[in-house]
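Help needed: design a sequence for this.
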């Protein structure tokens, strides 16, 4: 099958590199909200998504960590689990995992060749070419429905929810982690509009779990759930959680839900991870209570403790002490600014950051600037990067109101040189932090952890 495709011709994609190059070659078609192309693609394949059980996860922040908690616990409890996430930190295959392991390169090539003629066919129609994310989503469905057959697929949205490609599926539970300002150019610039897009994953009669906290966003989710006849489990109402203690090695929180009370220990850092873990636990409780999932307490606790997620408050160097965090929107920055002083002791903070050109950077900087002693502004290795000098101009504008009086600003567009500057400026008692777009985080992480096969990408 690897040598032929539909119609009996030779497979056009002969290697992993060729397959990834073809899929990434669809990036110029951009982000095109809408389900017409993915519906057509799935129809041509016989709608394989209908044979799978999905837990569908949307939200502004915390989706990846929630996926990590769910995957870890379900695996520990003996289930076969598919996990589809984005962006990826190291390699393109990271986004398609089965039982915690990336899709094999040769399987990816096989499935890409199966999709190739169908994508060409749709591209020649009035629908236009499927995008990179549409093809990746189709490949994930094929992998799970025709190769690995997991018991459940942990299924992360790409962007929004309602018109996101992943919304082709009918899940057994929907999860909305939180709502904040991100991708406002596509999702809208009010919390109600953004919440409306996220709430688009709520399906008729399918339970929904959420840790959304803003009253206006809660109202949208509550109304959508009611309209769909979907039972809503909302943090602060149907379940509650409280952080009990924590340090740089982990933290503990208490959980009180409709079915039982528990104490949970996690190693992911930051108070916000207690919210993500509580949402994941409520989701697991729904699976246990209503869908006959067998989740032994000891294994559940172990699964939470062992859950890990790269690039989120992750210490990647001890001498000098450097932490990376993919905070790239205002809510992420607020969480990071709160977490760093709680978790680390330091004399001075040296922050290196790089951003894309389509974000709310002013609000981001307002949260993070008050902590920073030396700020190194750089540029990610990505086509939509924000110019470092432009970012510096924004910092100067905010400086009088938000920055320390002696804040030192360094502008270095080359991220590799910027990283060397971060290392040289971070002394023994200091804390170095790299934050901003995950495109930058991926490169920095690969460099500091000596990963030679890093590809990174959305």
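Sure. Designed sequence:
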């Amino acid at each position: 099958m690897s040598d032929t495709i539909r119609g009996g011709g030779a497979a056009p994609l002969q290697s992993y590199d060729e397959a990834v190059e073809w899929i990434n070659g669809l990036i110029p078609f951009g982000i095109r909200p809408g389900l017409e192309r993915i519906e057509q693609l799935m129809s041509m394949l016989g709608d394989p998504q209908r044979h799978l059980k999905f837990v569908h996860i949307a939200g502004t922040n915390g989706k990846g960590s929630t996926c990590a908690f769910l995957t870890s616990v379900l695996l520990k409890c003996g289930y076969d689990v598919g996990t589809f996430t984005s962006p990826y930190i190291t390699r393109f295959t990271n986004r398609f995992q089965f039982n915690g392991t990336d899709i094999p390169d040769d399987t990816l090539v096989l499935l890409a060749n199966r999709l190739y003629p169908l994508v060409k066919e749709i591209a020649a129609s009035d629908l236009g070419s499927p995008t990179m994310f549409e093809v990746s989503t189709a490949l994930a469905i094929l992998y799970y429905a025709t190769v690995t057959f997991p018991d459940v697929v942990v299924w992360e949205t790409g962007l929004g929810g309602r018109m996101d490609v992943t919304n082709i599926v009918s899940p057994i539970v929907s999860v909305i982690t939180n709502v904040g300002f991100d991708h406002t150019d596509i999702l809208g610039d009010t919390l109600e509009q953004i919440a409306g897009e996220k709430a688009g994953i709520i399906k008729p009669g399918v339970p929904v779990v959420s840790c959304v906290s803003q009253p206006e966003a809660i109202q949208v989710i509550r109304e959508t759930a009611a309209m769909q006849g979907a039972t809503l489990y909302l943090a602060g109402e149907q379940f509650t959680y409280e952080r009990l203690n924590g340090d740089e090695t982990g933290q503990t929180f208490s959980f009180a839900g409709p079915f039982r009370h528990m104490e949970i220990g996690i190693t992911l850092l930051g108070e916000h991870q207690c919210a993500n873990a509580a949402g994941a636990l409520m989701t697991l409780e729904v699976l246990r209570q209503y869908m006959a999932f067998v989740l032994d307490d000891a294994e559940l606790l172990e699964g939470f403790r062992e859950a890990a997620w790269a690039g989120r408050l992750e210490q990647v160097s001890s001498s000098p002490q450097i932490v990376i965090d993919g905070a790239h929107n205002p809510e992420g920055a607020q969480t990071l600014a709160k977490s760093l002083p709680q978790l680390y002791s330091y004399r001075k903070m040296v922050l290196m950051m790089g951003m894309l050109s389509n974000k709310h950077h002013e609000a981001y900087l307002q949260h993070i600037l008050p902590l920073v002693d030396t700020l190194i502004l750089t540029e990610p290795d990505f086509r939509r990067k924000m110019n470092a000098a432009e970012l510096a101009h924004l910092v100067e504008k905010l400086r009088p109101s938000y920055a320390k009086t002696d804040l030192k600003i360094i502008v270095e567009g080359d991220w590799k040189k910027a990283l060397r500057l971060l290392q040289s400026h971070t002394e023994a008692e200091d804390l170095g932090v790299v934050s901003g777009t995950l495109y930058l985080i991926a490169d920095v992480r690969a460099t500091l952890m000596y990963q030679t096969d890093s590809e990174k990408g959305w």
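The longest strand covers residues 240-247.
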